[in-house]
Predict the structure.
Amino acid sequence: MPCAPDVDGTCGKAANVASVRVQLEMHSLWEQFNHLGNEMIVTKSGRRMFPTFQVHISGMDPESEYVLLLDFVPVDDKRYRYAFHSSSWLVAGRGDASPPGRVHFHPDSPARGSQWMKQTVSFDRLKLTNNLLDDNGHIILNSMHCYQPRLHVVLVDPRRDSHIYAQRNFCTFSFPETRFIAVTAYQNHRITRLKIASNPFAKGFRTADPDDCSYLGR
Amino acid sequence: MPCAPDVDGTCGKAANVASVRVQLEMHSLWEQFNHLGNEMIVTKSGRRMFPTFQVHISGMDPESEYVLLLDFVPVDDKRYRYAFHSSSWLVAGRGDASPPGRVHFHPDSPARGSQWMKQTVSFDRLKLTNNLLDDNGHIILNSMHCYQPRLHVVLVDPRRDSHIYAQRNFCTFSFPETRFIAVTAYQNHRITRLKIASNPFAKGFRTADPDDCSYLGR
DNA sequence: AAGTTCTCACCTAGGTGTAAAGTT
DNA sequence: AACTTTACACCTAGGTGAGAACTT
């Protein structure tokens, strides 16, 4: 289902951002992870997300330039722990201090609307880290905290003093099914199994167990 | 040795292109290949160059934006063939019709001078093909013809009507030691041996022969 | 005979979870 | 006890020239 922008950017210009629509790719895979309580590994050197955050975009002005970026907002101010006996996440106290807030610019930015719209936009170069001192430009997250990824679409306004209008030139998209808890090691074994079953790079850990293929939904 | 631009772009602007200097990386490796008569494989699906065309750039305005691109000019209007008995290239007649002229934009283009200058700029994504109908954007060359790669540095002028000044906004760099003959299979066995000795992806063909390491120059 | 295409084993480069070891 | 780090085997993805097969 397409997602309408959280911020309405209606204004009189030929190219604005109000008509932009964004659809999450691999929606049903995200739903399966979200249903189990999704986890994403963070490491010192940085770890990719899986599933990858990928979207299909429509409604851009083909000739105008846009910048796409992703950030991660804490869902709450809590620290979590996993209760193995009940297979569930419990609140373990107040959240730790937020690490330096960073954004990940899609490496193709800036690009024209026609470029963004003609194929799936994939944020597969993005990496998550728990290293507060990271200087590779990775996204820094607190382990055992819950995060919501957000996509921002920014119209590059060629006019001088465009900062005056900047508030009208971007919109934000948030897909609740992409929420996850950052971890240094997987807690829920069902998450581990679904990652192994669906991530091509983990094929070496697959068994002949047909349950491993259940994510195919067929 | 830095290479001064072929085209002098002196003009009164704060940022121009006349002061740009470009230095070829892996110069001594290029020299060794050039000394033997360099060959580059072309295939239907596209083949990387080796050595890779890499440069170090200085003299740009850090704040201005530049586009970098590579093209390949025929050195002459001749077709060559390799004489195995004399281990040398001979003229085999007039050159074939030139394929569609293409340029390869460096994928980071456009970028600010500070970005281009802070590390080696590598054209390792560029691929050479002999397929006249290629639609992957690869550089199309005639096999058994000789080519000279050229680097163009284009200043992105933010002023309106910048096309009026466009002729002053680019310069071209040409390194004679990067010249080569396009082939579908290597002709000179010494070129083959030097490629195997110096290209990490050909390590599987290396023997214990110490000659294979001669390119190290030690 | 000369040049091109194709498949292949062998690499580089780097993304996986595992299990043991380390840390607090 | 709870969490993090590290080395590792096993993958994906794709860049090599060899050599056989194919084309003209």
Q: What stands out?
A: The CA atoms of residues 47 and 127 of chain A lie 5 Å apart. The two ends of chain A are 21 Å apart (CA to CA).
